[in-house]
């Protein structure tokens, strides 16, 4: 069987070697502690699951949903944007429910990218931005995220000919994997750049509800002019511990929402209605409940940062997101360091180069790990003397 060439555009799975080593450890009876996956261990709130129990019994919810969702769900999204960010959006024209943000992000490239077009993609970044571009026949221009620039793409370094051929810019703040945040002055710069080069801005805002020390992340759409140039992707996955239910939304420019609806309505049939009712319930969760959940992650963040500092790694505590981004000691590559930690301490972290070439030299630790695994993982790391390398 000959498969389509687009499958060859997906880079080889970088974690194959580490997965093989984890399996070998398990076979030896060694329990590995993983800081790898960004998938909340904290359960979906009970009242949200209760809503599924209740609405799953209604026979109309057993039938096909609409691609553009229940009007009640779209209205709940608009109300949530109003109360959380102070933005008024039209729930019929500027909101589109998604089967998780990943689905919308993957499909969005089909709306903007013709073969040969360029997408500006953060490096390191969530891999779906680049893979979606390649599947649509486009090319990626990496925008390096580096510490000196606060992990924000330097727009002035994008060559003029690249900007001319670019149709889309992907951004993600709070950021996976660096944990960085963006402020409104940066978003203003992005909007000016997008307007002057006629580029659509796709902002992935999946982590706005996971923040620490009283910090409240911005929506890109709060910034004047954003609705003219872009879309924001949101997810209930990380906001309300709902990764397993697959529910999110795109909000923003009405023409772009309509274009995404054309793609989606031809390829999927929307979110199951009962899951949309769960989403409505979730978006009514109080700030206090979110603060309590974030206090759990914040305490984990602090313990992780403290332990890493103790063994000589310099780490800045992130203001938001579920990730701690750590520069590996001199002489190591990301993969070498991750492998050594697994070899010597039975602890898994993610090698930064898996998120793009500029992720080389870093590893990522996720805070979505149970308290007992966290304690054991930190105990193992704390006693580690990292072998020196030239
Ligand atoms: C930056 C980013 N965007 C999108 C997603 C996917 O979100 P969802 O679960 O809504 O598909 C993730 C998941 O890890 C992510 O890290």
What shape does the CA trace take? globular
The overall pLDDT average reads: 96
- Strand order across the largest sheet: 2-8-7-6-5-3-4
Total beta-strand segments: 12
User: Roughly what fraction of the amino acids lie in strands?
Assistant: 5-15%
Number of domains: 2
CATH architecture of the largest domain: 3-Layer(aba) Sandwich
First-last Cα distance: 48 Å
Q: Kindly report the name of the CATH homologous superfamily of the largest domain.
A: Type I PLP-dependent aspartate aminotransferase-like (Major domain)
List ligands, each type once. Answer: pyridoxal-5'-phosphate
At the first level of CATH, the class of the largest domain is: Alpha Beta
**Biggest beta sheet attributes:** 7 strands, mixed
CATH topology group of the largest domain: Aspartate Aminotransferase, domain 2
- Helix percentage range: 40-55%
Defining key terms:
binds pyridoxal-5'-phosphate, Aspartate Aminotransferase, domain 1, Aspartate Aminotransferase, domain 2, 12 strands, 40% helix, globular, seven-stranded mixed β-sheet, 390 residues, single chain, 2 domains, three-stranded antiparallel β-sheet
């Amino acid at each position: 069987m000959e498969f389509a060439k687009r499958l060859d555009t997906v880079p080889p799975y970088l974690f194959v070697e580490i997965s093989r080593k984890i399996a070998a450890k398990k076979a030896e009876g060694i329990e590995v502690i993983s800081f790898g996956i960004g998938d909340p261990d904290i359960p979906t709130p009970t009242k949200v699951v209760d809503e599924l129990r209740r609405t799953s019994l209604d026979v109309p919810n057993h039938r096909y949903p609409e691609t553009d969702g229940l009007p009640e769900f779209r209205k709940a999204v608009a109300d949530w944007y109003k109360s959380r960010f102070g933005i008024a959006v039209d729930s019929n024209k500027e909101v589109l429910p998604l089967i998780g943000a990943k689905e919308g992000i993957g499909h969005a490239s089909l709306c903007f990218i013709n073969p040969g077009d360029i997408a500006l993609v953060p490096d390191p970044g969530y891999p779906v931005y680049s893979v979606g571009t390649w599947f649509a026949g486009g090319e990626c221009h990496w925008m390096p995220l580096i510490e000196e620039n606060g992990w924000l793409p330097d727009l002035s370094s994008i060559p003029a000919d690249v900007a001319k051929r670019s149709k889309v810019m992907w951004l993600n703040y709070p950021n996976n994997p660096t944990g960085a945040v963006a402020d409104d002055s940066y978003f203003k710069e992005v909007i000016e750049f997008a307007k002057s080069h006629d580029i659509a801005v796709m902002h992935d805002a999946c982590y706005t509800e996971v923040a620490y020390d009283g910090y409240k992340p911005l929506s890109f759409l709060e910034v004047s002019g954003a609705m003219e140039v872009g879309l924001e992707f949101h997810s209930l996955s990380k906001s309300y511990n709902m990764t397993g239910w697959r529910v999110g939304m795109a909000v923003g420019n009405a023409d772009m929402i309509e274009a995404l609806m054309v793609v989606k309505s031809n390829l999927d049939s929307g979110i199951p209605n009962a899951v949309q009712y769960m989403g409505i319930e979730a978006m009514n969760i109080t700030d206090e409940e979110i603060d309590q959940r974030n206090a759990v992650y914040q305490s984990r963040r602090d313990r992780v940062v403290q332990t890493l500092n103790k063994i000589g790694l310099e780490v800045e505590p992130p203001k938001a997101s579920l990730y701690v981004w750590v520069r590996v000691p001199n002489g190591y590559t990301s993969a070498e360091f991750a492998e050594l930690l697994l070899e010597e301490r039975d602890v898994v972290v993610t090698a930064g180069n898996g998120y793009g070439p500029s992720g080389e030299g870093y590893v990522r630790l996720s805070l979505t790990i149970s308290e007992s695994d966290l304690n054991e993982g930190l105990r193992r790391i704390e006693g580690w003397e990292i072998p020196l390398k030239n």
